[in-house]
Amino acid sequence: MGSQVLQILRQGVWASLTGGWFFDPHQSTFSNCFHLYVWIFLLTFPFLLYMVLPPSLMVAGVYCLVVAVIFTTIKTVNYRLHAMFDQGEIVEKRNSTMGEPEEEPEQTLMEEAPPRAQHSYKYWLLPGRWTSVRYERLALLALLDRTRGLVENILGVGLSSLVAFLGYLLLLKGFFTDIWVFQFCLVIASCQYSLLKVRPYPAPHCPAPQGHNWVIAYSRPVYFCICCVLIWLLDALGSAQPFPPVSLYGLTLFSASFFFCARDVATVFTLCFPFVFLLGLLPQVNTCLMYLLEQIDMHGFGGTGMGLSRSLLAAALLYGFCLGAIKTPWPEQHVPVLFSVFCGLLVALSYHLSRQSSDPTVLWWVPACARPCACVCLHPRWYLPPAQREVLHSDLVMCVVIAVLTFAISASTVFIALKSVLGFVLYALAGAVGFFTHYLLPQLRKQLPWFCLSQPVLKPSEYSQYEVRGAAQVMWFEKLYASLQCVEKYLIYPAVVLNALTVDAHAVVSHPDNCRALLMTVAGLKLLRSAFCCPPQQYLTLAFTVLLFHFDYPRLSQGFLLDYFLMSLLCSKLWDLLYKLRFVLTYIAPWQITWGSAFHAFAQPFAVPHSAMLFVQALLSALFSTPLNPLLGSAVFIMSYARPLKFWERDYNTKRVDHSNTRLVTQLDRNPGADDNNLNSIFYEHLTRSLQHTLCGDLVLGRWGNYGPGDCFVLASDYLNALVHLIEVGNGLVTFQLRGLEFRGTYCQQREVEAITEGVEEDEGCCCCEPGHLPRVLSFNAAFGQRWLAWEVTASKYVLEGYSISDNNAASMLQVFDLRKILITYYVKSIIYYVSRSPKLEAWLSHEGIAAALRPVRAPGYADSDPTFSLSVDEDYDLRLSGLSLPAFCAVHLEWIQYCASRRSQAVDQDWNSPLVTLCFGLCVLGRRALGTASHSMSASLEPFLYGLHALFKGDFRITSPRDEWVFADMDLLHRVVAPGVRMALKLHQDHFTSPDEYEEPAALYDAIAANEERLVISHEGDPAWRSAILSNTPSLLALRHVLDDASDEYKIIMLNRRHLSFRVIKVNRECVRGLWAGQQQELVFLRNRNPERGSIQNAKQALRNMINSSCDQPLGYPIYVSPLTTSLAGSHPQLRALWGGPVSLTFPTPGLQSPPSGLPAADCSQVGSAPSATAPPPGTAPPLGGASARAVAGEAAGPQRGRRPPGGSPRGTGGSGGVEAPRSGRTGEEVAWRGPGWCVCGRGSLPRSPPAPSEPPSGLQSRVSTSSPLRPAGGPHSLRDGPALSGQCEGDWMRRPPTPLGGAGDCPCCRLCAGLPLSWGSLDLGAASSPAFAHRPPVSGLAWEETSVAPPGSRNGVMTSRCAGKRPAPPPGAARPSGSVGAGPALSPQ
């Protein structure tokens, strides 16, 4: 403990004061001396120059030149040394003479061994001249930080010179005297030294440790330069006084005393740099820039945080109209036309900006929306989701309508004629509607209204259901809540702002002012956007504005518009202060504090005298929007540095480990990613997708209560516990981030989960007695306890689509030999089923190699006597021959073989010695031998048997017997028969426990396997197809999981069923979350507390301390899933869309479009504004992910078990709205993989488009499957907010070339299809394991696609191409639709 404190003092406190220098006993003497002398030089040189030489600019120039030369020399040598290590030219020498090889003397027994050779590196001084350097890279890294590029070196030298120049310039100006000169030189030295060496011990403002953070080195000098420029500028403004003083709310701005006072504050702040960085009050420069832009956009323009450029552009456009309007003469009872135009543009632009997220993708797509062929290939910025396109199309119409209506209302002079009474009527109406909508209704819908009632007054229909059975029903109070919000946002508050604008403009028209016009423009833009985005907070702001400036202090009023603007800023800070004080008082309440360590008990008494300072810190933290975090989790609070709403600097999101991002050898040997947390993270990813479609609509319907940007909610169910952080709240959009916690959490997490899920209705206590309570009313103790919590339950029955998870221990299900025998029997029957169903059966039966290899099994007395076969597990074991024989096999399974053969469309010989029976026998023997080999020939033991079963389940078939090598004649015998047989056998074995005698009849067993094949995906969890199936909402899935961690080594059978789940929604105090996150960052990064059982993560039910701290970014926390920033749009919520109708658009139905065939989702392009059909995917959703494209050629054995499409039914596979794989049919000896439907560019439907594709790509075209992250090009990341995330990554030739212009054919497959050009391997990999994402235009009615077969050079098979063939003749009545025509069969999956 003492050494840790000493280390913190030396490497933390002292290093923060000096800019990074401290004595490190673990480094060499040279390194410590170099750091010491450099720091002393940087400190004393400017101090001696100032004290000895007369102050002049020449001295400042000399000082800057010396600093530049020293830094240039150090940076150059450091860069060259690292380049020397990278090149690795090693010189070996054995004596002092360099360059002359020495003959090695003979060594005798009594002689000493020659000295070991010394290695050095070649350091090139000049071309042809070098010297040897004996140094190590690690020693150099300990001496100086590495700068990897020329720009970084130039930036370091430039910043050091700029610090020297600006610092000495302030000394010349005489801003510092006496001891403060030395203090200022200390600040200069610390800023310059941090450019040379940033110690591995980070400062309190550092983010989570993720390697070397080069931004930290530039933070202190950049802040110093900004402060110096600010001091010089304020002093110049105070002396020159270029602006006339302005009086606003009793404060005189822009006067000489104002500038000089601000200069003195900046000067003191600069002198306090060592202590500011010691306490970590300033963030990194990039974080500070994000924070400033976000605060200006939110509080200055009413934006959502990241759209400052759009806000400035809109304000600049509106400012000209406003200035011209107030300078225009106003008649007594009339409004100038220019002012009415300004009002119309203001409301329309505010409406449009409020409906746009901070993602600038939509700006790039505005000119492309009208294109007839919009190429949407791969890159995120080239793809605009359908829901966002609908928003743009709707805004195009609504903004014009809003502008015209606002112009008409403003020009009608209603605001001037009724200004004496209209204002108060609007204020009263806004207050009454806001109080009823945002206070009364949410309180009546809470789980504990006013913390007095034990049940909500307005209950959803699912409240009394023990288990929800469907989607949540829209109640009458939800419709009322949504309708009142519309009235409030689109009628009342625009009228309030327009009335204030008109009255204020009419008042200032007599003395127009440019500044006044700017303030009116900014205030109107901010208030309208705030009303559109966050109406729950507006009625209180309006009420306080009226009370303060109309009744309490009317003489301070500067016009209602500016008063409202000021009060909105003040109220936002007061809300922050209220949340902070609630968090502090809840956290340190003595009757419920939980001491997690001895330090907590020691620090508790010191919290009492700390209270006054705590209140001051709360005021400052509320003013600057900084977290207030508990020190080491104790009752002592300190202020942290400012952070944006996103909080975390890194764009961290979980990368799932599966077979797409691990080597094959690791998959077979070590099975990476087999821990529960990695496997369970997919359920949180699916939960994120579900929330992406429904969250915004549910918030609008009031199902989560009142909300705002920065709010945090906890979703809790039986096994899912996730923290949802709202980052951005707009008008019809919400950007959020989900953080999933462990399924099997720690003891502390379980205690807090119990606290948020248990009810308090049974509590009957009142102080120390139990007198009971009234019906549906909380007791005194329960009501008191609920008021002292940092969280509250807003909904106890929130319905969301997800997966119910059931896991069974495989060991208990296969413990006895009889149960294993049942599994082996189903294994054999499944193999027979897949053999008889295979379209390649005739080819296998006629194959000479296979027939020759299986001919001996028909000999009398033949039996396979492998040691793995046993009477205890093999039902057809021949005891007489001590092995597996064909007669014994036929005695048990011949009836099943004959029944399966009879279900084929083509008749096959079914006798006991027929080729079909022989092939089934050979495959069944091979499959059982493979199971025995994987079990290390110890199938009698349970653990080896489970190990072998799991190996076969994930596709690890190892053929070791020469008698089984005939299977290599066609690998589909393993991929399409044996591998799916293992998985189907496990499912049938599961069903055996519910109804043991159900599958006695062959017909029942056959139908059961066919049904499971249609609706169920059976796959290993490491297979990318497992993730694709879950994200595409497959109804049912099954997997065999091997859980291997420190405490357990067991096998589980995982069964997933898609259904509607019930969650409890808990709203957490957002300042509690921010404070605890900041406390963890300070404790782990700055104080280096590595104790896994530290007191700050122990359970504290009143603040959910453990759950919140465990949701931090890794390595501070340990969430099993962190989503990227995900945007949910209101248009993707089906219930809200049905309630309000679809978006208004100018799109008209296109005549002649054909309807897709039955079983495929309808392309409902003709219905504008209507709710989506049951089969069509909702707008903004990702296209269904195909299963066929998720399997690589080498991993076919590990692919999920899928079946064929039934006649007239929907495509099966992943269970999405579009099919993923239909029947496979033979085509020139190769299988044709059918994919799901293509999606039309208009985004409102999908149409079948493409012809069949061959199963193998030609040589030379590389493809790979990557499901660890969404589909992205080589350029950069792709988040969910950029569009639907797909699970493949293709590297075809056309992807590596520059994109073609929109509308051109080029190499884009969708543009080539639209232009009627053929598709070839150069443009699209039709048969690769992963197809790129592309969309198609709807086909023209009556056009057909003719198919041709071309063979690219070096390929074995033909390649299908498509070309528009003109009018398609009508087929004769009753004729089947051709497979290549439009509207027939599924098309390529947009994956």
TrEMBL record:
GO CC annotation: membrane
Bias (Polar residues) ranges: 1260-1270
Membership in a protein family: Belongs to the pecanex family.
High-level lineage: Eukaryota, Metazoa, Chordata, Craniata, Vertebrata
Protein keywords: Membrane, Transmembrane, Transmembrane helix
Topology term for the membrane: Multi-pass membrane protein
Statement: the UniProt record of this protein carries the keyword Disulfide bond: no
Major localisation: membrane
Subcellular location: Membrane
Source organism (scientific name): Ursus americanus
Chain intervals with Low complexity compositional bias: 1183-1201, 1376-1391
UniProt domain Pecanex C-terminal: residue ranges: 910-1134
Transmembrane segments annotated in the record for this chain: 36-53, 59-77, 150-171, 177-196, 217-234, 246-262, 269-293, 305-326, 335-353, 396-418, 424-441
UniProt cross-references to InterPro entries, sorted A to Z: Pecanex, Pecanex_C
Region: Disordered, residue numbers: 1150-1233, 1245-1292, 1346-1391
Compositionally biased residues, Gly residues: 1210-1219
Superkingdom in the source lineage: Eukaryota
Protein name: Pecanex-like protein
